[in-house]
TrEMBL record, chain A:
<dbReference type="InterPro" id="IPR050166">
    <property type="entry name" value="ABC_transporter_ATP-bind"/>
</dbReference>
<dbReference type="GO" id="GO:0005524">
    <property type="term" value="F:ATP binding"/>
</dbReference>
<keyword id="KW-0813">Transport</keyword>
<protein>
    <submittedName>
        <fullName>ABC transporter ATP-binding protein</fullName>
    </submittedName>
</protein>
<keyword id="KW-0067">ATP-binding</keyword>
<dbReference type="InterPro" id="IPR003439">
    <property type="entry name" value="ABC_transporter-like_ATP-bd"/>
</dbReference>
<dbReference type="InterPro" id="IPR003593">
    <property type="entry name" value="AAA+_ATPase"/>
</dbReference>
<dbReference type="Pfam" id="PF00005">
    <property type="entry name" value="ABC_tran"/>
</dbReference>
<dbReference type="InterPro" id="IPR027417">
    <property type="entry name" value="P-loop_NTPase"/>
</dbReference>
From TrEMBL, chain B:
<feature type="domain" description="ABC transmembrane type-1">
    <location>
        <begin position="74"/>
        <end position="254"/>
    </location>
</feature>
<keyword id="KW-0472">Membrane</keyword>
<feature type="region of interest" description="Disordered">
    <location>
        <begin position="1"/>
        <end position="20"/>
    </location>
</feature>
<comment type="similarity">
    <text>Belongs to the binding-protein-dependent transport system permease family.</text>
</comment>
<feature type="transmembrane region" description="Helical">
    <location>
        <begin position="230"/>
        <end position="250"/>
    </location>
</feature>
<keyword id="KW-0812">Transmembrane</keyword>
<feature type="transmembrane region" description="Helical">
    <location>
        <begin position="140"/>
        <end position="160"/>
    </location>
</feature>
<keyword id="KW-0813">Transport</keyword>
<dbReference type="Pfam" id="PF00528">
    <property type="entry name" value="BPD_transp_1"/>
</dbReference>
């Protein structure tokens, strides 16, 4: 089966004043269809850069980024993106934010309203459909952003530390909600995080650990945990074992990089 | 930066109106200040030669209102301000957008804006009179310039400052450049433009009064010039107060419009 997203020998460099900075150094990675892949790594290792290339917001300096075997040429509604900074349009209500993509796609009004309504209900913002973003909490803002992405029904969800700014409790709630939706709809998800627990808990099969300077894939760790990912699973010895393995790969890579 | 607000903080107060008690309080304080000022003025007018007191000025104001002079003057000044201001805004917004959106346009236009911004519009009056005669045209022209300069910079800054993430959010939802401009850039820069308009209106008002000091037949600025020639101190005061009150009213109206239109902004 062909992968949904495929990074092939991807290099990304930034031209600085007098040097060339390598943000990503020959990254190769496949995300399978319907996989929930999580990517974890230290700050500045190029996670956002990688995701932006799949989203079509950045072009690789060398190598290829393929979605459904076709090179990515730009952003498109087939790939929904969730940004860490929520990125809601502050002048639009929750409902109009969610309808934004549908209006662009010229979805007829009755269908547009219905789909927006469904997406808003799905993330539990039904009571706030007519509220402006400034009146929402961080968690609610991010749920609105998720609804906005769901509304256009993308095949792929690209999520860049979506829960990074939230408190632990809200984060776990949104993780559960996200997993429930994923197991119902089975979209392909590429989920970036700096939280090891989150990476292990959400990954369907694999956690990708990246290394910094230059950014590259450091390790791919298999996750074989049962669904649903209940509290029991989160507290199981198997979870702890995988978590420790990922933790080790993330936090003890500095030794190898400085030695090299 | 995004500010995380607690859900309880859900617009407890309707926009544009503070709580009833603090509104009443600031009204009382304002009245106290007014009365105090009038008393000081009345006392001062007894001590200082040629300085008319509040009572004399009020009588003069009554006379100027009843014979329609004040109204005509105010109308003449307001007409000039609104014509110049409207023209300035209407031209400044597209030019500012053009500069913000196309780097080439920015490169071509910005040097001129930066240069002419340092010249006070009033300084162009002598030149404008030579080129355009002493009619309405030179006055409206300098007012137009005053409005244009503050709005063009604001519109330009508004476009440049649009959050990249919002543009990207629109792009990944499939928005074309046109849609991004209409649905993201324009609303995101409205607060900037409105602030520019407020500053612009203030400088238009200052400019009109000064422009009327030179060669006009009516208007509040002309009235003061004329009154000073004939030593009519009370009339100068009436005109001055009218200028202040009208300027304040216009600013407040625009502030309210601004609050209304940018109610979606997070305020700290
Ligand atoms: N426009 C740019 N110009 C120069 N360098 C850049 C630019 N964008 C990113 N970088 C560099 O590329 C590297 C990777 O950035 P990226 O944002 O992908 O990191 P990240 O893994 O997402 O980090 P974080 O976890 O902090 O979000 C960083 O070291 C950053 O300094
Ligand atoms: Mg990042």
């Amino acid at each position: 089966m062909t992968p949904k997203i495929s990074f092939r020998d991807v290099v990304k460099t930034y031209e600085l004043k007098d040097t060339t900075f390598t943000a990503l150094d020959h990254v190769s990675l496949d995300v399978a269809d319907r996989e929930f892949l999580t990517v974890v790594g230290p700050s500045g290792c190029g996670k956002s850069t990688l995701l932006s290339m799949a989203a079509g917001l950045l072009e690789p300096s060398a190598g290829q980024v393929l979605v459904d075997d076709a090179p990515v040429t730009g952003p498109g509604p087939d790939r929904g993106v969730i940004f860490q900074q929520y990125a809601l349009f502050p002048w639009l209500t929750v409902r109009h934010n969610v309808e934004f993509g549908l209006r662009i796609a010229s979805t007829p009004a009755p269908e547009r309203r219905e789909r927006a309504e469904r997406a808003i209900e799905l993330v539990g913002l039904g009571d706030f459909a007519d509220a402006l973003p400034k009146t929402l909490s961080g968690g609610m803002k991010q749920r609105c952003a998720i609804a906005r992405a769901y509304a256009v029904n993308p095949q792929v969800m690209l999520m860049d530390e979506p829960f990074g700014a939230l408190d632990a409790l809200t984060r776990v709630q949104l993780q559960d909600q996200l997993l429930t939706t994923w197991s119902q709809e089975q979209r392909t998800v590429m989920f970036i995080t700096h939280d090891v627990d989150e990476a292990v808990c959400l990954a369907s099969r694999r956690v990708v650990v990246m290394a910094a300077r230059p950014g590259r894939v450091h390790a791919v760790i298999d996750v074989d945990l049962p669904y649903p990912r209940t509290e029991d699973v989160r507290l199981s010895p198997e979870f702890t074992r995988i978590r420790n393995e990922v933790w080790h790969a993330v936090y003890h890579q500095n030794l190898t990089t400085t030695a090299a | 930066m995004t500010v995380i607000t607690a859900p309880e903080k859900k617009s407890a107060q309707p926009p544009g109106r503070r709580g009833g008690r603090s509104a009443a309080r600031s009204l009382v304080l304002g009245l106290v200040a007014l009365v105090f000022g009038l008393v000081v003025w009345a006392l001062a007018s007894r001590g200082v030669e040629h300085l008319p007191g509040p009572a004399g000025v009020a009588t003069e104001a009554g006379r100027m209102i009843s014979d329609g002079m004040l109204f005509d003057d105010a109308l003449a000044s307001l007409r000039r301000v609104f014509t110049g201001f409207a023209l300035g805004v209407v031209l400044a917004v597209p030019v500012g957008f053009l500069m913000g959106w196309y780097p080439v346009a920015r490169g071509l236009i910005e040097p001129y804006i930066q240069f002419f911004r340092t010249i006070p519009p009033l300084a162009l009056i002598p030149l404008a009179i030579v080129l355009m005669g002493i009619g309405e045209t030179p006055k409206i022209f300098v007012i137009f310039l005053a409005a244009f300069m503050s709005c063009v910079v604001a519109a330009f800054q508004g476009v440049v400052d649009v959050d990249r993430t919002l543009i990207n959010a629109a792009r990944v939802l499939g928005a074309s450049d046109r849609t991004i401009f209409l649905k993201v850039v324009i609303p995101a820069s409205t607060p900037f433009i409105l602030v520019g308009m407020r500053i612009g209106l203030g400088s238009c008002w200052a400019t009109v009064v000064a422009a009327e000091l030179i060669g006009a037949q009516e208007g509040l600025g002309y009235r003061m010039q004329n009154a000073s020639t004939y030593y009519l101190m009370s009339q100068i005061f009436v005109a001055l107060i009218a200028i202040g009150v009208l300027g304040l009213v216009m600013d407040r109206l625009l502030l309210r419009a601004e609050r209304r239109l940018t109610n979606w902004q997070e305020r700290r």
